[in-house]
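User: Can you help me understand a structure? I only have the sequence.
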Amino acid sequence: MAIIEGTKDARGLRVTLVVARFNDFVTERLQRGALEALTTAGAREADISIVHVPGSFELPLAAQVAASSGEVDAVVCLGCLIKGETVHFEYIASAVAHGITAAAAVTGVPIAFGVLTTDSAEQALARAGAGSANKGWEAAMAAVEMATLFRKLRRRAPEGIRV
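Assistant: Let's start by predicting it. Here is the structure, written out as tokens:
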């Protein structure tokens, strides 16, 4: 029996962060957390790119384009949706989650979900603090683990089979 797992070693990985500007008082903190995680895991700054989009709704398409470029091993989507008084929050949160999932499936590139969906700004800020509890950090490390896993799986795949 073979157990195949990814690692938390980002050396040699090319990673793109796609960051929503809306609620930037939170997303800037998520971005800092993701960057800190990647560099702590050994990624070179030259191998990290950051793409800013207007809001979380735009994350999936930008992530799909970045992943389709052939220039990245993983994409990390960072956004923040704070529930308001209307159902708009539910529609956007659902569209973003489904869109990111679809983009990863279409491209075959790991795309991590670092989009906060909270009831308040206070909840969002609590999830965007310093260190490894930062959800940007967590999403970046999930992307690293998946990218390293995919490298292993692709080396093992029979010729002609795309993993």
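Now, to help you interpret it: The first strand starts at residue 15 and ends at 20. Residues 15-152 form a domain with the Rossmann fold fold (CATH 3.40.50.960). Let me know which part you'd like to focus on.
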